[in-house]
């Protein structure tokens, strides 16, 4: 099979993964309007290419949080890579290391943070954190990733509750018995003895057993591999200060979609913002992330780095996001398609193809390096 573009990997993954796994990776919330708009929105944006600018030499390198990466495309946190490939996140980490880009490892990884950093000891890894009702869980994770040499904590703020993904409910999606959320191995028992306030096992319940807003039937079945409803829906801006008190690592906030929240994020001292709607898996009806980017970039005015994820599938999508002010983009689903195709090699191919396309788009638009990409490339009358 000749793999030419990211859609080829999507097709392969759809044909080869078990249906429940495919459905889980592909899922959007409710009617999937936001998930689908994440892709279509790029196609509404037109570019204004410049000519005769000697693009014989092009350079895609950039920096994020002061670290150089070979191209402005990183790997967004996605859960459960071992559903797609036997050693899952370890292969993902090796691919990111080989390509010299950033991998944001999910809390809901099927390899532990230690296994991931050991698999790719020279890779640039950030850790994606959820905040738990029992704060000791989050605290321990932060201490572990700091000890392991992760370079930033990415706090996901768009999951006070899990979005309603219809096929996961229909399929009664669960991790198969041979897989688990490795970061929680043995940790619940320890944490219970620290505080005794939350029995995490009781909290392994379907988000869809919610009875009314904010209340759960804790007798429901496990859905996303454990501890699902132990996420703290009361998380608020003051928790940024709590997280800052735990770590010296830069804090990147993931899931911002408005200028108001971007301003609050900067005021609360975060070091970066990921404009994201969680791949359309949370609030259906929210904006495509590329459509939310401009107001956030305008508000932030360069005070912190702004990144974006959601719907990036081609090099020209990357170019458009950078032209609208993103310092770097991150990809989610394409990485699990790459894993399903050929593990580490598949993820490397995904990154290579996307970067080749980006380099070509950049050159065809008349840009020799990423610092030459700016808003003049965007045809605003068509926005
Ligand atoms: C299967 C899957 C699992 C995800 N798991 C997480 C997660 O554990 N933590 C998180 O912050 N975001 C998670 N996300 C959201 C991604 O980080 C990212 O926002 C989204 O996938 C980007 O959109 P894309 O898939 O169109 O590239 C997940 C997304 C998918 C598709
Ligand atoms: C308690 C939330 C579990 C969600 C698992 C990972 C995720 O974020 C997703 O979108 O799926």
Automatic annotation (TrEMBL):
Residues the record marks as active site: 278
Gene3D superfamilies assigned to the protein according to its UniProt record, in alphabetical order: Aldolase class I
Keywords per UniProt: Flavoprotein, FMN, Oxidoreductase
Signal sequence interval, chain numbering: none
The keyword tRNA-binding belongs to this UniProt entry's keyword annotation: no
Known EC number: 1.1.3.15
Alphabetized Pfam families for the sequence: FMN_dh (PF01070)
GO biological process: fatty acid alpha-oxidation
Domain of life from the UniProt record: Eukaryota
Catalytic activity line of the entry: a (2S)-2-hydroxycarboxylate + O2 = a 2-oxocarboxylate + H2O2; 2-hydroxyoctanoate + O2 = 2-oxooctanoate + H2O2
Record has Flavoprotein as a keyword: yes
Family (UniProt): Belongs to the FMN-dependent alpha-hydroxy acid dehydrogenase family.
The protein's name in its UniProt record: (S)-2-hydroxy-acid oxidase
Gene that encodes the chain: hao2
């Amino acid at each position: 099979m000749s793999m030419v573009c990211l859609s080829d990997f999507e097709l392969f993954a759809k044909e080869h993964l078990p249906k429940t796994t495919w459905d889980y990776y592909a899922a959007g919330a409710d009617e999937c309007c936001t998930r689908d708009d994440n892709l279509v929105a790029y196609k509404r944006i037109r570019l204004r290419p410049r000519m005769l600018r000697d693009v014989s030499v092009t350079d895609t390198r950039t920096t994020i949080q002061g670290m150089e990466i070979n191209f402005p495309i990183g790997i967004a946190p996605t859960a459960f890579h071992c559903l797609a490939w036997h050693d899952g996140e370890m292969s993902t980490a090796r691919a990111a290391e080989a390509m010299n880009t950033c991998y944001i490892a999910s809390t809901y990884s099927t390899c532990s943070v230690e296994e991931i950093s050991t698999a790719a000891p020279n890779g640039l890894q950030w850790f994606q954190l959820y905040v738990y009702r029992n704060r000791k869980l989050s605290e321990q994770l932060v201490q572990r990733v700091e000890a392991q040499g992760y370079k930033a904590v990415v706090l996901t703020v768009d999951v006070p509750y899990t979005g309603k993904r219809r096929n996961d409910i229909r399929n009664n999606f669960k991790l198969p018995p041979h897989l688990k959320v490795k970061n929680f191995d043995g940790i619940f028992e320890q944490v219970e003895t620290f505080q005794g306030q939350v029995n995490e096992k009781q909290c392994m319940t379907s988000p869809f057993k919610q009875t009314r807003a904010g209340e759960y039937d804790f007798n429901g079945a496990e859905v996303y591999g454990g501890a699902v409803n132990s996420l703290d829906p009361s998380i608020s801006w003051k928790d940024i200060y709590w997280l800052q008190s735990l770590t010296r690592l830069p804090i990147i906030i993931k899931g911002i979609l408005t200028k108001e929240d971007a301003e609050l994020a900067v005021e609360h001292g975060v070091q970066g913002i990921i404009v994201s709607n969680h791949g359309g898996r949370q609030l259906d009806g929210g904006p495509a992330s590329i459509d939310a980017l401009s107001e956030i970039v305008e508000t932030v005015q360069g005070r912190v780095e702004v990144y974006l994820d959601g719907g990036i599938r081609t090099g020209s999508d990357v170019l458009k996001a950078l032209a609208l002010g993103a310092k770097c983009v991150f990809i989610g689903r394409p990485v699990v398609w790459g894993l399903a195709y050929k593990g580490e090699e598949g993820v490397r191919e995904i990154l290579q193809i996307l970067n080749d396309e980006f380099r070509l788009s950049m050159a065809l638009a008349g840009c020799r390096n990423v610092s030459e990409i700016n808003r003049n490339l965007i045809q605003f009358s068509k926005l």
